């Protein structure tokens, strides 16, 4: 089994308790979706913890996707709004998974649009915005516009780095994104060992080692 | 020849398949049995019921004439209701001594002290009950008592009903002195006596208790770390080393001494230790997560399911092993 990559993750998502704090206009639109967005029921799509957010129809919580992508995640989402530990969370987090509906929350939107955005922008932390394809096109479009307006800095840098993903629509895409992040954060080749190996090969007359021929055992 | 080998192979596979099927059928029954028997063992000390045999042995030897039985005629003539408090006070001494000895043995034979008093009391009472029964049987054999039908016994006066019971109880208390001496001489140190837990198991349990003490005393579980760094890493390393040692012992115990639902108990303990190790590793990575696992004032609803489960198991482990550090 492959060695898991340790990463600190913060899931910036709503919870079950956040319904009352949403913009009225969004509330109406979410209510119209029926039981897709039912803040009374765990997993539809929210729970008490942001880590338990189940953005896609298959009903898998975010933390499970991290596990599947070979990431050993230390989740710090529970401390994000803690006045004493919030700053530490921003400092330690390496990957942010963002729910755009947070930008419609009366108090939490500030945190995302200001501190989190600034931190990602300045320190090049990985981020992805999860906007499920299952949502009606009109609502998706509206949320995409909200993201562009309120997360302008992130929108500007979205293509600069492959650890940024502006819109993740499906579970498969989220999975492949997380695997990409895992590869990026995973162990890198040791330059010293690489040069040592190259020197050994060079001493044996192999200028560019490759696998074009059959491997041979030499004594 | 080939046909023979093929037939043999097919026979083997048939038996193997049958054995697998049987195991599959028995498995749920065994799981259910383990689920039921484990609390019974912890409440009533089932694994130590050999002590009842050793405890009732003096009464049995007395009945066989190996000991001189107490002078029952004197007891019968002098005992009145007024003497009852004095008799109780005197008789209590061997009972208490037996209880204390049983408790000491049980404290060694079980990893944790949960329900220890209950276990020791049950076994002491069982010893008294069996001793009394032996005394009653002896009384019937020598003619001190007479066997009557239930209706006759029920209709007889209170004194006639209470007297044999009282005498048997008193004799069993007297024999407890002998049993206490036996406990002191034979069961004073853990030994490979039949019907009792073996030396190897007790030694492994003792080592495991030491590991659990080390784990319970780990500063990582009581002091919130300031930040990540060598100090925190050292604490985590110490804790995980103790956990690894405990896991090795648990594996041995679970494989070798797994009756009376013990395998299940060790599996649960192992799960608690795995979660503790995962929490420690998490805190080593991000020290602010310490409060999620150990702080008393944390909002539990904000934690994800994995953290909640780890926290619950860590609390359970701490509750069970708290007495080790007192």
What's the layout of helices and strands?
The complex is a heterodimer of chains A (219) and B (326).
Chain A: E1 5-12, H1 24-32, H2 62-68, E2 71-75, H3 86-92, E3 95-98, H4 108-123, E4 126-130, H5 137-150, H6 152-157, E5 164-168, H7 171-185, H8 191-203
Parallel strand pairs in A: 1-2, 1-3, 3-4, 4-5
Chain B: H1 2-44, H2 50-64, H3 72-78, H4 84-109, H5 116-142, H6 150-155, H7 158-186, H8 199-216, H9 230-256, H10 262-285, H11 290-294, H12 305-321
Helix pairs in contact in B: 1-5, 1-10, 2-5, 2-7, 4-5, 4-7, 5-7, 8-9, 9-10, 10-12
Would you kindly provide a written description of the structure presented here, covering whatever features stand out?
The complex is a heterodimer of chains A (219) and B (326). Chain A has 219 residues and is α/β, with parallel strands linked by helices. Chain A has a single domain, classed as 3-Layer(aba) Sandwich (Rossmann fold), CATH 3.40.50. Chain A has eight helices and five strands. Chain A has a five-stranded parallel beta sheet with strand order 2-1-3-4-5. The longest helix of chain A has 16 residues. Chain A is elongated and about 75 Å long. The two termini of chain A are 32 Å apart. Chain B is mostly helical and 326 residues long. Chain B has three domains: 44 residues; 141 residues, no CATH class; 127 residues, no CATH class. Helices cover 75% and strands 0% of the residues of chain B. Chain B is built from twelve helices and no strands. The radius of gyration of chain B is 28 Å and the shape is extended. Classes of the chains: A alpha/beta (219), B mainly alpha (326). The interface between A and B is medium-sized, with 19 and 15 residues.
Oligomeric state of shown chains: heterodimer
Q: Give the overall silhouette of chain B.
A: extended
* Poorly predicted segments of chain B: none
Mean pLDDT, all residues of chain A: 87
* Major protein interface: A-B, 19 and 15 residues
CATH topology of chain A: Rossmann fold
Helix content of chain B: over 70%
Round the Cα radius of gyration of chain B to an integer and report it.
Answer: 28 Å
Biggest sheet of chain A: strands side by side, in what order? Answer: 2-1-3-4-5
Number of strands of chain A: 5
Content of β-strand of chain B: under 5%
Structural class of chain B: mainly alpha
Helix content of chain A: 25-40%
Q: How far apart, in Å, are the first and last alpha carbons of chain B?
A: 71 Å
Order of helices and strands of chain B: HHHHHHHHHHHH
């Amino acid at each position: 089994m492959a060695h898991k990559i340790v990463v600190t993750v913060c899931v910036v998502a709503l919870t079950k308790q956040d319904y009352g704090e949403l913009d009225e206009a969004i509330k109406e639109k979410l209510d119209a979706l029926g039981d897709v967005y039912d803040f009374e029921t765990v997993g539809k799509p929210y729970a008490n913890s942001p880590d338990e957010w189940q953005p896609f129809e298959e009903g898998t919580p975010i933390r499970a996707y991290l596990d599947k992508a070979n990431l050993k995640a230390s989740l710090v989402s529970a401390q994000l709004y803690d006045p004493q530990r919030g700053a530490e969370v921003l400092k330690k987090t390496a990957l942010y998974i963002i729910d755009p509906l947070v930008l419609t929350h009366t108090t939490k939107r500030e945190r995302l649009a200001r501190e989190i955005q600034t931190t990602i922008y300045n320190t090049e932390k990985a981020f992805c915005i999860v906007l499920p394809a299952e949502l009606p096109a009109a609502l998706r479009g509206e949320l995409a516009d909200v993201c562009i307006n309120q997360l302008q800095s992130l929108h500007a840098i979205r293509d600069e780095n492959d650890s940024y993903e502006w819109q993740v629509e499906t579970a498969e895409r989220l999975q492949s994104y997380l695997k990409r992040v895992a590869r990026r954060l995973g162990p890198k080749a040791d330059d010293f060992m690489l040069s040592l190996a190259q020197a050994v090969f060079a001493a044996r007359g192999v200028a560019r080692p490759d696998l074009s021929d059959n491997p041979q055992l030499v004594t | 020849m080939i046909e023979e080998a093929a037939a043999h192979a097919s026979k083997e596979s048939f038996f193997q398949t049958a054995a697998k099927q049987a195991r599959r059928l028995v498995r749920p029954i065994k799981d259910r049995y383990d689920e039921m028997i484990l609390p019974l063992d912890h409440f009533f000390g089932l694994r130590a019921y050999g002590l009842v045999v050793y405890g009732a042995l003096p009464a049995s030897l007395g009945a066989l004439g190996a000991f001189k039985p107490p002078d029952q005629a004197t007891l019968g003539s002098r005992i009145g209701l007024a003497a009852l408090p004095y008799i109780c006070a005197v008789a209590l001494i061997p009972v208490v001594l037996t209880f204390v000895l049983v408790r000491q043995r049980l404290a060694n034979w079980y990893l944790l002290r949960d329900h220890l008093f209950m276990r020791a009391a049950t076994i002491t009472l069982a010893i008294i009950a069996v001793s009394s029964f032996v005394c009653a049987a002896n009384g019937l054999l020598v003619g001190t008592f007479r066997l009557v039908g239930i209706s006759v016994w029920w209709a007889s006066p209170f004194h006639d009903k209470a007297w044999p019971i009282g005498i048997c109880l008193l004799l069993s208390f007297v024999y407890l002195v002998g049993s206490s001496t036996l406990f002191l001489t034979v069961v004073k140190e853990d030994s490979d006596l039949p019907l009792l837990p073996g030396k190897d198991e007790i030694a492994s349990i003792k080592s495991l208790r030491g590991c659990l003490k080390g784990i319970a005393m780990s500063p990582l579980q009581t002091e919130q770390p300031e930040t990540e760094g060598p100090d925190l890493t050292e604490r985590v390393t110490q804790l995980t080393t103790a956990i690894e040692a405990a896991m090795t012992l648990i594996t041995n115990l679970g494989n070798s001494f797994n009756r009376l639902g013990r395998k299940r108990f060790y599996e649960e303990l192992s799960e608690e230790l795995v979660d503790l190790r995962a929490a420690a590793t998490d805190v080593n990575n991000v020290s602010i997560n310490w409060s999620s696992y150990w702080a008393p004032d944390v909002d539990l609803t904000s934690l994800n399911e994995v953290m909640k489960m780890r926290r619950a198991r860590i609390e359970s482990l701490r509750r069970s092993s708290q007495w080790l550090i007192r």
